[in-house]
C-alpha cells in the first residue's frame, strides 16, 4: 500500500532487517500492528493498529495515536478518558510491520475501556476439546 | 468471516467483554493478532497472526501454530529451527480479536529468524522530523 509519509518498503531483505532506515511495511489494509506495554513493568496493556497518519502523529507529538478498525477513524487514545499514552520508546520488528510502544499512561488510569489496566484480563482454558474464558485478577 | 471451528462472534457487547464464552473475532482476512512473550520474564518476543486452523492446532497441541501472511500458509513456529513454542498461558482481550501467548521456547533458542531472542531489536528514533532505527543490545 503506497503512502507518502514514510520511506517506501525496502526491496532488500537485509536492509529491512539489519538496516537503520525506518521503512514501515503497512499491510494490505494500510495498517501496522502496535503492541502497547507499560514502560514501568512491561505489562501488556493493549494491541492496536496504526495507519501512516496515526504513526506520523505519534512520532510528531510523542502521544500515541491509532487507527480504530471498528470506527474507521483516527483515534488519539485517551482523548476522551484523559488516559493518554506518552510514548517513552518505540521499537520495530525484523520485517518492520509491527511496532512495540512502551508508554506511560496519564494519571495511571485504566487503559481498557472496561476500566481495567490491561485489555488482556481473561485467560483461555481448554478442557474436553472446548475452550472458555476465566477472568483473571489484575496485577 | 465465518468459521466453523469456534463459536461465532457474540452479538452482545457485554458477553464479548465480560463473558466466559470464547468467541474469537477473526478480522476481514480471517486472522487474529497474537502477541508472544517469554513466560519467564514477559519479554516481547514476536507478533504473529492466527487463522482458525492455527488457533485450533495451538489449543489442541499446546504448541504455537500461526498463519504466515507472507507465505500464505500454516506455520508451526520452530518446526525447522527446533525452537518451538510451548504455550503456558493464553489470554484474549476485551473484544476477543487479539491473543497473548506466554510461551516457553524449546532449547531457549532464538525466536527471531535473524538469530535474536526477540524480533524487536531496533528502536525508532526521531530527530529533525526524520525517523531512523538504532540497533539495541539484546537483554
Automatic annotation (TrEMBL), chains A, B:
<feature type="domain" description="Phosphoribosyl-AMP cyclohydrolase">
    <location>
        <begin position="46"/>
        <end position="121"/>
    </location>
</feature>
<feature type="binding site">
    <location>
        <position position="97"/>
    </location>
    <ligand>
        <name>Mg(2+)</name>
    </ligand>
</feature>
<dbReference type="GO" id="GO:0000105">
    <property type="term" value="P:L-histidine biosynthetic process"/>
</dbReference>
<dbReference type="InterPro" id="IPR026660">
    <property type="entry name" value="PRA-CH"/>
</dbReference>
<feature type="binding site">
    <location>
        <position position="93"/>
    </location>
    <ligand>
        <name>Mg(2+)</name>
    </ligand>
</feature>
<protein>
    <recommendedName>
        <fullName>Phosphoribosyl-AMP cyclohydrolase</fullName>
        <ecNumber>3.5.4.19</ecNumber>
    </recommendedName>
</protein>
<feature type="binding site">
    <location>
        <position position="112"/>
    </location>
    <ligand>
        <name>Zn(2+)</name>
    </ligand>
</feature>
<keyword id="KW-0460">Magnesium</keyword>
<feature type="binding site">
    <location>
        <position position="119"/>
    </location>
    <ligand>
        <name>Zn(2+)</name>
    </ligand>
</feature>
<dbReference type="GO" id="GO:0008270">
    <property type="term" value="F:zinc ion binding"/>
</dbReference>
<comment type="pathway">
    <text>Amino-acid biosynthesis; L-histidine biosynthesis; L-histidine from 5-phospho-alpha-D-ribose 1-diphosphate: step 2/9.</text>
</comment>
<feature type="binding site">
    <location>
        <position position="95"/>
    </location>
    <ligand>
        <name>Mg(2+)</name>
    </ligand>
</feature>
<dbReference type="GO" id="GO:0000287">
    <property type="term" value="F:magnesium ion binding"/>
</dbReference>
<feature type="binding site">
    <location>
        <position position="94"/>
    </location>
    <ligand>
        <name>Zn(2+)</name>
    </ligand>
</feature>
<dbReference type="InterPro" id="IPR002496">
    <property type="entry name" value="PRib_AMP_CycHydrolase_dom"/>
</dbReference>
<comment type="function">
    <text>Catalyzes the hydrolysis of the adenine ring of phosphoribosyl-AMP.</text>
</comment>
<dbReference type="InterPro" id="IPR038019">
    <property type="entry name" value="PRib_AMP_CycHydrolase_sf"/>
</dbReference>
<keyword id="KW-0862">Zinc</keyword>
<comment type="subunit">
    <text>Homodimer.</text>
</comment>
<keyword id="KW-0963">Cytoplasm</keyword>
<comment type="similarity">
    <text>Belongs to the PRA-CH family.</text>
</comment>
<dbReference type="GO" id="GO:0004636">
    <property type="term" value="F:phosphoribosyl-ATP diphosphatase activity"/>
</dbReference>
<dbReference type="Pfam" id="PF01502">
    <property type="entry name" value="PRA-CH"/>
</dbReference>
<dbReference type="GO" id="GO:0005737">
    <property type="term" value="C:cytoplasm"/>
</dbReference>
<keyword id="KW-0368">Histidine biosynthesis</keyword>
<keyword id="KW-0378">Hydrolase</keyword>
<keyword id="KW-0479">Metal-binding</keyword>
<keyword id="KW-0028">Amino-acid biosynthesis</keyword>
<dbReference type="GO" id="GO:0004635">
    <property type="term" value="F:phosphoribosyl-AMP cyclohydrolase activity"/>
</dbReference>
<comment type="similarity">
    <text>In the N-terminal section; belongs to the PRA-CH family.</text>
</comment>
<comment type="pathway">
    <text>Amino-acid biosynthesis; L-histidine biosynthesis; L-histidine from 5-phospho-alpha-D-ribose 1-diphosphate: step 3/9.</text>
</comment>
Amino acid at each position: 500500500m503506497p503512502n507518502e509519509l514514510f520511506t517506501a518498503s525496502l526491496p532488500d531483505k537485509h536492509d529491512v532487517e539489519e538496516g537503520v532506515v525506518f521503512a514501515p511495511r503497512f499491510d494490505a489494509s494500510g495498517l501496522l500492528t502496535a503492541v502497547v506495554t507499560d514502560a514501568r513493568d512491561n505489562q501488556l496493556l493493549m494491541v492496536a493498529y496504526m495507519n501512516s497518519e496515526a504513526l506520523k502523529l505519534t512520532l510528531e507529538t510523542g502521544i500515541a495515536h491509532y487507527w480504530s478498525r471498528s470506527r474507521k477513524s483516527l483515534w488519539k487514545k485517551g482523548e476522551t478518558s484523559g488516559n493518554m499514552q506518552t510514548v517513552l520508546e518505540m521499537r520495530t520488528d525484523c520485517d518492520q510491520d509491527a511496532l512495540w510502544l512502551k508508554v506511560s499512561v496519564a494519571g495511571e488510569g485504566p487503559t481498557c475501556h472496561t476500566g481495567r489496566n490491561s485489555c488482556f484480563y481473561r485467560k483461555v482454558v481448554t478442557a474436553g476439546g472446548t475452550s472458555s474464558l476465566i477472568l483473571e485478577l489484575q496485577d
